Amino acid sequence: MDILNGMAVFTAVVDAGSFTAAGDKLGISKSAVSKQVTRLEDQLGARLLNRTTRSLSLTDAGHLFFERASRIMEEAEEA
C-alpha cells in the first residue's frame, strides 16, 4: 500500500508541476510530498525527478514510471 501512496503523490507532483501545488491538491505539506517522493525513489532505486530551486523535470526513469503509475492510478480510481 505504501508504494501506491507514493505513486499517487508522485503522479500528483508531475501533473501539478510542483511539490507545493501537489501538496495543496492532496491536502498535505510540501515537505510531506517531498518525503513521499524521496521514499518512492529509494524503494525503486532510481531517481524519478530532477529538482532545482526553480524547476522540476522527469528523468528518463521518471518518465517511464509516470506513464505506468498514471495508468495504475486511473485503474485504481475506476475500481
Report what the structure shows.
There is one protein chain. A two-stranded antiparallel ribbon has the order 1-2. With 79 residues, it is mainly alpha-helical. The chain has helices spanning 2-16, 19-26, 30-44, 60-78; strands at 49-51, 56-58. The chain contains 4 helices and 2 strands, in the order H-H-H-E-E-H. A hairpin with a 4-residue loop joins strand 1 (49-51) and strand 2 (56-58).
Query: What is the SS-derived class?
Result: mainly alpha
Overall morphology: globular
Bin the strand percentage: 5-15%
Per DSSP E runs of 2 or more residues, the count of β-strands stands at: 2
What's the gyration radius in Å? 12 Å
Largest beta-sheet characterization: 2 strands, antiparallel
| Mean model confidence by pLDDT | 94
The H-and-E topology, N to C, reads as HHHEEH
The oligomerization state is single chain
Q: End-to-end span in angstroms? A: 15 Å
Helix content estimate: over 70%
Low-confidence stretches: none
Major sheet strand order: 1-2
- What is the overall number of helices? 4
